[in-house]
Design brief:
Chain E: InterPro entries: AAA+_ATPase, ABC_branched_ATPase_LivF/BraG, ABC_transporter-like_ATP-bd, ABC_transporter-like_CS, BCAA_Transport_ATP-bd_LivF, P-loop_NTPase. The complex is a heteropentamer of chains A (about 290), B (about 550), C (about 375), D (about 325) and E (about 240). Chain C is of the alpha/beta class. Chain C has helices spanning about 15-40, 55-70, 80-90, 105-110, 125-135, 150-165, 185-195, 205-215, 235-240, 260-275, 280-300, 310-320, and strands at about 1-10, 45-50, 70-75, 95-100, 115-120, 140-145, 170-175, 195-200, 225, 245-250, 320, 330, 340-350, 350-360. In chain C, the strands form three sheets. In chain C, strands 7-6-8-9-10-13-14 form a seven-stranded mixed sheet, with helices on both faces. Chain C has a five-stranded parallel sheet with strand order 2-1-3-4-5, sandwiched between helices. A two-stranded antiparallel ribbon of chain C has the order 11-12. Chain E is α/β, with parallel strands linked by helices and about 240 residues long. In chain E, β1 and β2 (about 15-25) form a beta hairpin. Chain E is globular and about 45 Å long. The mean pLDDT of chain E is about 85. Classes of the chains: A alpha/beta (about 290), B mainly alpha (about 550), C alpha/beta (about 375), D mainly alpha (about 325), E alpha/beta (about 240). The complex binds adenosine-5'-triphosphate (ATP) (2 copies), leucine and magnesium ion (MG) (2 copies). One adenosine-5'-triphosphate sits at the interface of chains E and A.
Chain lengths: ~290, ~550, ~375, ~325, ~240
């Protein structure tokens, strides 16, 4: 993608590329799940990765976050190569994520779940915890404050002391987002955040994602099958199929790409069904 | 959203039981003191005296007395009453009874030791969810650390090296140091090299770790040799006042062994970890049995010294303790202090970022890692912390027994500590202490007394209660677990998870096999520490 | 009537409970004999049996309980040296005298505790006796040494080895094993090294299994052991394999007893009370209890027929001259070892135990 | 020591290790079966297998005088032991594990330990009433005779094996054959039948297998029955091979067998067998390291003798698991994130 | 086919269903919609016997099945695609399908149905021997649906079948639903977030809110209902 094609975000300070991926490949046994994919994510943008089931999207995320080791390729976050880092190191470097299959800490309440997300940013260590030093108290307060802030941010403030597993599905997804945000990421990767949400809840989610970018200044990259969400939210879309990138571009470009229509969207999808939304509520108006 | 349960339950109003608590405490204390004091017993009508002297009755009285501490902790009562009962029981009545009957003190110390062990294992198993079946090894490390130096054994070691190859000391020491530095450096580089562990890196890591261990051993050996060259034997070990230093050294030693054992194996999951720790626990014991030069092998080490504090002894003397009781009396208070510190440390760690990280990796390693929790490091901290509690108590154990041999550190002991933790309530500090107390009292007071009480009856040997300890203990274990699967005093977390505070009409209790059984969420959400971090939900490969 | 108690410590549960119960039962018989005599003096005599599960820690806990019960004046026990050592140490500060019917390890008395005595010979007599038998009667030029990795077994073999080395006998192998069932590796090694004889320091339940497998693999050389083999179970377990097996023992076989008729009476009483035949450790439990009671009586007498203190009993025990025992008179030297102990060499052949020879052991010190 | 003596020696060591390994393997299968469905280390399995050994002992004892063919006696003993141990295992599951299905997984582990303790005493008491503690197998004549060996006169296969330095007794051959047969049967059952598939499904997700129309409780009971029956077989084999059992004999072999199951990859049937064999051989090799050290003139190996057998095996386990964290044949537990 | 009468279900003390009354007529498609945590999943679980109602009854073909274990209910001709797919992770795709047919004895029938599943979802055929647990989210969803069809159920419970599926497959799924219902007369109880789609294929619908039936009736009426549009269809 050329710099010229990149949408102007109107935020001068926030220009440039935050994540740059080159030739990322993952081979499972004989199966090439992700094949030589390049991707650049502009700072403070909302971008999406879409593609048919089994296209390799989740695997792509897993490689970025260090859960899988790429078979080849590089991942650069603000110039630092992330390949080979452990997941916790990737998080410390500034990438947080949510999971396609929700993975919350079952025995913790919402607040604690989010506090865990703060782990890598807290200064207090083992000795501080034992001796209850000033640094410890500061850290704990920070963790708690950030957790509450994030819970409020995603709208779960009232469930602060509720066990995570007792929350309804959609709220659990939001809780995962709050937990990811608590790591103070530069970039957050959301894997199908709208799955299991009804259209109304998806609308709320949409504005939440915009606020993540606008209010927190965090770059968002998401995987989604909900085309209304993707088309209205993303500034840039990459399409994978059978592990390879088959298209990329602005939403309307992708939507009208015949390859994408055939492999992914299905008949008649492009014409307008998803399009009308975008014209109505494009460009972060809800923020 | 009304179905969502409120975050906190309104406190159930229970009657204040301060008065009951105090009355019970007074009764049980009186009973205890009377039953232990022969002078008082003599004044009682002989039937009553004989009754109180019956081993089983005496043991029950003691148990009843100790139960007061539990009541003081559990009951709703005013703080001063709780403190009064707790304080007097621990600091006055118990030592007093111990003066008349040292086995009370012995039991109390033993409970303290096991409570500390349980607290340590609780961190590893209950909080971090790592099933460790070889935990007693760290206890052994602590015990031998002091045992060797606090007895004539160190003299023997030095003499051995003096007689053999003492003049190689400098060479060995320098060699060890060099190896140590080289391997430590290479370990660091290996760790720095980014990238998941390839087999080559694995080998390199293993070799370097091995080198590190050998380096440490050589260095230590070299130092011993150097010392030995000039030593003239230490028939009674080093000055017993080094005891204090060795409390610290034992922590360090046990923690290091914890890290050493942990490094190669903590990547393993669930039961793989369990069996490896079991094996490594045995390795430590067998080494103790085989490395006779240092440990005196199967013969064991004895006598082992213990610190003595002059003013404390005179205090003990002043309140009627005989000199042979000083050490127990002294160790009792040392144990109290250590336990207090350990509890404090435990609570502080539990309620800190580390504690949260432990629980996070217990619940979901992948998610925890993705949230920035370094897996191996966090597990190592759990291992080392747990180990250090065992290490320090090992020193106390050696000083109390005056004798240690590999037989005290067998696998069964590890299992026993584990049962204390689970019985008391995984992850619950008061729970595991209670678990330790219950199991210890059963094992060294109640069950044996059953045999002693019936010793004079003519019962066929096959069904003689004295021989049925396993049966009785086993039945108690099974029964307690069936009736209180969440443990005696479950942790708040556990209670929340198991809906312990449910209304009685709840049809999803574990006993209700059909409803409970077929309830996926029950199966899925109950956290499964230890054996495998993977719960049913993950196996399903789907959302929770 | 003042209550006066003695205690026994021995394994009453677990794998060695068979031997441990014998000690307790034997002691009970002795106590029964003395109840009347104590009654006359105004004492209500009884025995309390404590279980040590053959485990040092449990044994020590039992010892602490005994120390705490001031009506207990002395202890008969234990079976295992590994338990006796810490248990006696735990009893020492309270001056509770101990008389051991079975512990042979040198360390038991070598620590110089005032309260620890034993009526059996020590391993530094048993070891050389075994060694002499190996080189003398068995004419072995090379011996394979095995032990069970316990304080007793390993300690005993150390003594045997010392004696063998002094005679320039070849040691074909020397190792320990905790294994209870599978001995294939060791047997292969024995087959390879072809020793003239094997010495195994350990207990019958392990050695019986071993020797059976050994014979099945065609190794027929004699096997010698210590008092750990002194049980009829040895033949039950080893079957034909226990032929050509010899052992030194400190507990006397029936035919070697000085007081045969008395022994018969005890044996009858034993089988009547416990439904089993008395064996070596039953006899020694009986004898040890008798020594203990005579020591207590001596202390009572010294104290003007009043209840003696434990310290008095401790002192009396060292100087008592106990008579009327099945194994002859007992006197202790200054270390608590029996001045003139006997040792017996037994052979097992065709499933029968026969007394091969008797050895007198005199303690070197007084 | 020259090669000519060392080679047959090593063959002997390895072969006896393999026989030993077969016994471990069958015990290990009992652990693996139960572990497979409940993820529970069935600590009571050691007593389940001792029960089998005791039943086998009783059968051989009762039939000792009779004229019956030795192999028939063996068959009866095996069947009786399988039935007894299998039923016992079902009973244990019902009483001590099933009520705890939904409890944290360490809880049934503790009840398993409790049951194990109870059974030890129960077995001791039952045999104790007949005045027995150590139970020594009274084998039919011919079982203890050599099947093959250097100086055996055995015909055919035995002779051939003998010439290459393998010496085995008839009963050892029986052990191997019975073990192989049970392994084959079990492997077929679990991996190639509908029942086996159901067992694996229940193992992975009890609730969902209910949705497939599978009676999870029934399958679990069945698994305990099979696991127990294997325990019964292994008990008899244990008695055959080692000659003596008592109420407490289960503990050690139980631990080793479970280790074998882990080494092979817990849950995997061929894994348990491979693990058992590897452990058996390794244990034996470590037991003779001092001899090898002597032969190779490596003095330091001299200290490694039988007393290191057990822990040597554990150290090998550590090494293997470092490189193969799910055991030799364990499928790596792929987790889709 | 199926009737719920005053069903109350609890999780521990959480009262998730508060008296649900509903009827699923023979051969119909019934949609169940509602917001997050409304109790849709719980309703399906209660029907299939994964949960036992504390009060009320579930009646299938005239027989009260509340309290009967799930595996017996399934043997009566019901099939349930559970929330979260619940694929057997260590079984291959083919084995997952075979286990779906556990109650079917005829091997030929099983094979036919597997092939049928493969024609619905060719991806499954491609991955016949891949472990279920390593399939992608959407692939697992396909497998879960195919698995449920292995018994040719009389009553099919679908819990959010379109979740995680690409738009192409969402359409495919609804086609399959319609086809099953039309050709095989399979009765279907459908829980969907994609309410619009669900209501377009269903004949009747129930709207749940916090464990209670808030609305019920003709699907097309409900699709037009103001409050429903607002609450669930994201239209304001
Ligand atoms: N561990 C693995 N082993 C083998 N194949 C795998 C593994 N993990 C993923 N795959 C395969 O790789 C492909 C990509 O999977 P991935 O989960 O990345 O898809 P996805 O694009 O996220 O799909 P969906 O939209 O369905 O979630 C799939 O076909 C999947 O079956
Ligand atoms: N395992 C569980 N433990 C406790 N409460 C639960 C559990 N599962 C669901 N709940 C609660 O029961 C209520 C109903 O949940 P249910 O899953 O049936 O809703 P749903 O309509 O399927 O929602 P979603 O659209 O999120 O799937 C919710 O309040 C939820 O929080
Ligand atoms: C029973 C005997 C083997 C006891 C042995 N003599 C010991 O001292 O331990
Ligand atoms: Mg995906
Ligand atoms: Mg749902």
């Amino acid at each position: 993608m050329t710099a010229a094609a990149r949408p102007n975000l109107g935020k001068p300070a926030a220009s440039g590329t935050i994540l740059s991926i080159k030739g990322l490949t993952k081979i499972f046994g004989g199966l090439t799940a992700v094949n030589n994919v390049d991707l650049e994510i502009p700072r403070q943008s909302i971008v999406s990765v879409i593609g048919p089931n089994g296209a390799g999207k989740t695997t792509f995320f897993n490689m970025i976050t260090g859960i899988y080791e790429p078979s080849s390729g590089t991942v650069n976050l603000d110039g630092d190569n992330l390949v080979g880092l452990r997941p916790d190191q990737v998080t410390a470097a500034g990438i947080a994520r949510t999971f396609q299959n929700i993975r919350l800490f079952a025995s913790m309440d919402s607040q604690e779940n989010v506090m865990v997300g703060r782990h890598s940013r807290l200064k207090a260590g083992y000795i501080d915890s034992l001796l209850r030093t000033k640094r410890f108290h500061e850290s704990e307060k920070e963790a708690e404050d950030v957790a509450n802030l994030m819970l409020d941010f995603v709208g779960l403030g009232r469930f602060r002391h509720e066990l995570a597993t007792n929350l309804p599905y959609g709220d659990q997804r939001k809780l995962e987002i709050a937990r990811a945000l608590a790591t103070s990421p530069k970039l957050v990767l959301l894997d199908e955040p709208a799955a299991g949400m009804n259209p109304r809840e998806t609308e709320e989610l949409k504005s939440l994602i915009r606020r993540i970018r606008d209010d927190l200044g965090v770059t968002v990259c998401l995987i989604e099958h909900d085309m209304r969400l993707v088309m209205t939210l993303s500034e840039y879309i990459t399409v994978l199929d059978y592990g390879s990138k088959i298209a990329e571009g602005l939403p309307h470009e992708v939507r009208n790409n015949p390859k994408v229509m055939e492999a992914y969207l299905g008949r008649g999808a492009a014409a307008g069904e998803y399009g009308k939304e975008e014209t109505v509520k494009g460009g972060g108006a809800n923020a | 959203m009304t179905a969502i349960r409120p975050g906190s339950q309104p406190p159930i109003s229970a009657p204040d039981r301060s008065l009951a608590l105090i009355i019970l405490a007074v009764i049980s204390s009186a009973l205890l003191l009377v039953s232990q004091e022969s002078a008082w017993l003599a004044r009682l009508p002989s039937a009553l005296a004989n009754f109180l002297k019956n081993p089983l009755v005496a043991s029950l009285v003691l148990t009843f007395f100790l139960a007061n501490l539990l009541f003081a902790y559990r009951w709703k009562a005013s703080l001063w009453a709780k403190l009064l009962v707790g304080g007097l029981s621990l600091f006055l009545i118990l030592p007093w009874a111990g003066r008349d009957n040292t086995s009370v003190l012995d039991l109390a110390i033993q409970i303290g030791i096991f409570a500390a062990l349980s607290l340590g294992l609780n961190i590893v198993v209950g909080l971090a969810g790592l099933l460790d079946l070889g935990y007693i090894a760290f206890f052994a490390v602590g015990a031998y650390t002091w045992g060797i130096f606090g007895s004539g054994q160190i003299g023997k070691v030095l003499t051995y090296f003096k007689d053999n190859s003492a003049n190689n000391g400098p060479v060995v020491a320098v060699g060890g140091l060099v190896l140590l530095i080289v391997t430590a450096l290479s370990l660091r580089t290996i760790n720095r090299v980014k990238g998941k562990r390839t087999p080559v890196a694995n080998w390199a890591f293993l070799l370097a770790a091995l080198g590190l261990v050998i380096g440490v051993i050589l260095l230590a050996r070299g130092v011993v040799m150097l010392v030995a060259a000039n030593a003239s034997g230490l028939p009674n070990g080093i000055n017993p006042n080094f005891f204090w230093l060795f409390l610290i050294l034992a922590i360090a030693a046990a923690a290091s062994v914890g890290v050493l054992i942990g490094l190669p194996v903590l990547k393993l999951k669930g039961d793989y970890l369990a069996i490896i720790t079991l094996g490594l626990g045995e390795v430590i014991r067998v080494l103790a049995n085989n490395l006779g030069t240092y440990t005196n092998g199967s013969q064991g080490i004895t006598p082992i010294g213990s610190a003595s504090v002059p003013w404390f002894n005179s205090l003990a003397g002043a309140i009627g303790f005989t000199p042979d009781q000083y050490n127990l009396f002294f160790l009792y208070f040392v144990v109290l202090i250590i336990i207090a510190v350990i509890i404090l440390a435990n609570m502080r760690l539990d309620r800190s970022k580390i504690g949260r990280a432990w629980i996070a990796i217990r619940e979901d390693e992948i998610a925890a890692q993705a949230m920035g929790v370094p897996l191996v490091q966090t597990k190592l901290i759990a291992f080392a912390t747990g180990a250090s509690f065992a290490g320090i108590m090992g020193v106390i154990f050696a000083a109390k027994q005056g004798f240690i041999s590999p037989e005290s550190f067998i696998l069964n002991q590890s299992i026993s500590v584990l049962s204390m933790v689970v019985l008391g309530g995984l992850g619950s500090i008061p729970g595991v202490i209670l678990g330790a107390a219950v199991v210890t009292i059963l094992n060294i007071s109640l069950l044996p007394s059953l045999g002693e009480a019936t010793a004079s009856l003519n019962i066929p040997p096959q069904v003689n209660p004295a021989q049925l300890q396993r049966l009785v203990f086993g039945s108690i274990l099974v029964a307690m677990m069936l009736f209180r699967p969440e443990g005696l005093l479950p942790s708040v977390r556990q209670r929340r998870m198991m809906h312990e505070d449910d209304n009685p009409s709840d049809n999803l209790t574990p006993q209700d096999s059909i409803a409970g059984e077929l309830n996926p969420e029950n199966a899925a959400e109950v956290y499964s520490p230890g054996i495998a971090t993977r719960a049913d939900d993950e196996r399903g490969g789907g959302t929770q | 009537q003042t209550s006066l108690k003695i205690a026994s410590i021995s394994p009453l549960s677990g794998g060695q409970s068979d031997l441990g119960s014998q000690i307790k039962n034997g002691a009970q018989l002795a106590v029964n004999e003395y109840v009347a005599q104590f009654k006359k003096l105004g004492f209500d005599l009884s025995l309390t049996g404590y279980d040590d599960q053959a485990d040092p820690a449990t044994g020590t806990a039992a010892a602490r309980k005994i120390a705490a019960d001031s009506s207990i004046l002395a202890v008969v026990g234990t079976l295992n040296s590994g338990v006796a050592i810490p248990a006696s140490a735990a009893l020492a500060p309270s001056h509770v005298a101990m008389v051991s019917p079975a512990n042979t390890a040198n360390q038991v008395t070598d620590r110089g505790l005032k309260n620890m005595n034993r009526i059996v010979a020590r391993d530094d007599a048993q070891g050389p006796a075994g060694a002499n038998f190996l080189t003398g009667k068995l004419k072995a030029k090379s011996v394979y040494l095995l032990n069970d990795k316990t304080a007793y077994g390993e300690g005993l073999v150390t003594e045997v080895k010392k004696a063998l080395l002094a005679k320039n006998i070849k040691i074909s192998g020397d190792e320990g094993t905790e294994e209870k069932s599978d001995f294939s590796a060791i047997i292969q090694k024995i087959k390879l090294t072809k020793p003239d004889a094997i010495y195994f320091g350990g207990i019958y339940n392990q050695i019986g299994v071993f020797v059976k497998q050994l014979r099945e693999q065609g190794v027929m050389v004699p096997l010698v052991g210590g008092d750990g083999l002194d049980s009829e179970q040895m033949v039950t377990i080893g079957g034909k394999g226990s032929d050509n097996v010899y052992y030194t023992t400190v507990a006397a076989p029936a035919e070697a007893l000085v007081a045969l008729p008395a022994a018969k009476k005890v044996a009858d009483a034993y089988s009547k009370a416990y439904g089993k035949d008395i064996q070596g450790f039953g006899i020694f439990g009986y004898d040890a209890a008798k020594v203990t009671l005579q020591g207590v009586l001596l202390a009572v007498k010294d104290n003007g027929n009043k209840l003696p203190s434990r310290e008095q009993v401790e002192t009396a025990m060292r100087k008592v001259r106990a008579t009327g025992l099945l194994s002859g008179t007992v006197q202790f030297n200054s270390m608590g070892d029996r001045k003139a102990a006997k040792m017996y060499i037994m052979s097992i052949n065709n499933g029968k135990f026969t007394l091969d020879s008797t050895i007198n052991v005199k303690s070197a010190i007084n | 020591m020259d090669f000519a003596t060392l080679a047959p020696f090593l063959v002997g060591v390895v072969v006896s290790g393999l026989v030993l390994g077969f016994v471990y393997a069958i015990i290990a299968l009992g652990y693996t079966m139960v572990y497979g469905v409940l993820q529970l280390i069935n600590f009571a399995h050691s007593e389940v297998f001792v029960t089998g050994a005791v039943v086998g002992f009783e059968i051989f004892r009762v039939l000792n005088g009779s004229e019956m063919n030795g192999y028939l006696k063996l068959l009866i003993a095996l069947i009786a032991a399988m039935v007894a141990s299998g039923l016992l295992n079902i009973l244990i599951e019902r009483l001590a594990y099933r009520p705890l299905r939904n409890a944290p997984r360490l809880v049934p582990l503790i009840t398993a330990i409790g049951v194990s303790l109870i059974l030890q005493d129960v077995i001791r008491i039952i045999e104790g009433f007949q005045g027995r503690f150590d139970l020594t197998y009274q084998l039919p004549t011919g079982f203890s005779t050599p099947f093959c060996g250097p100086d055996s006169t055995c015909p055919g296969v035995g002779k051939f094996l003998g010439t290459i330095g393998i010496s085995l007794q008839v009963k050892e051959v029986i052990v191997v054959i019975v073990a192989l047969l049970s392994l084959a049967a079990l492997n077929y059952l679990v991996n190639f039948t509908k029942l086996g598939r159901a067992i694996r499904a229940v193992a992975q997700d009890r609730v969902t297998s209910g949705l497939m129309g599978i009676d999870a409780n029934g399958i679990i009971s069945l698994t305990f029955l099979i696991g127990g029956a294997l325990g019964g077989i292994s008990g008899v084999l244990f008695g055959l091979k080692f000659g003596t059992v008592n109420a407490y004999s289960g503990f050690d072999p139980g631990i080793i067998a479970f280790t074998a199951a882990v080494l092979g990859g817990i849950g995997s049937i061929p894994g348990a067998v491979l693990g058992g064999l590897v452990l058996g051989v390794i244990q034996n090799l470590i037991g003779v390291t001092n001899i090898l050290g002597g032969a190779l003139n490596i003095a330091n190996l001299g200290v490694i003798d039988s007393s290191y057998q057990r822990i040597g095996a554990f150290l090998v386990l550590v090494l293997i698991l470092i490189f193969k964290p799910t055991g030799l044949l364990g499928r790596s537990n792929v987790e889709k994130v | 086919m199926l009737e719920l009468r005053g069903v109350h279900t609890y999780y521990g003390h959480i009262h998730a269903l508060k008296g649900i009354d509903a009827v699923v007529p023979d051969g119909e498609i019934v949609a169940l919609i509602g917001g997050n945590g409304a109790g849709k999943t719980t309703t399906l679980r209660t029907i299939s016997g994964m949960l036992r109602p504390k009060q009320g009854s579930v009646i299938m073909q005239g027989k009260d099945i509340s309290g009967i274990p799930a595996h017996q209910i399934m043997q009566m001709g019901m099939s349930h695609v559970p929330e979260g797919r619940r694929i057997f992770p260590q079984l291959t795709v083919r084995e997952n399908l075979e286990i779906g047919a556990h109650t079917v004895t005829d091997r030929k029938v099983i094979e036919e149905r597997i092939q049928e599943g493969f024609t619905y979802f060719p991806r499954l055929k491609e991955r016949e021997n891949q472990l279920g647990g390593t399939m992608s989210g959407g692939e697992q969803q396909m497998l879960a649906i195919a698995r449920a069809l292995m018994v040719n159920p009389k009553l099919l419970l679908l819990d959010e079948p379109s979740m995680g599926l690409s738009p192409l497959f969402v359409e495919a799924i609804f086609d399959i639903i319609v086809e099953l219902n039309a050709k095989r007369k399979t009765t279907i109880l459908l829980v969907e977030q994609n309410a619009q789609m669900a209501l377009s294929v269903a004949k009747t619908a129930y709207v749940l809110q916090t464990g209670e039936v808030k609305l019920s009736g003709n699907a097309s009426d409900i699709a037009e209902d103001e409050s429903v549009r607002k609450a669930y269809l994201g239209e304001d």
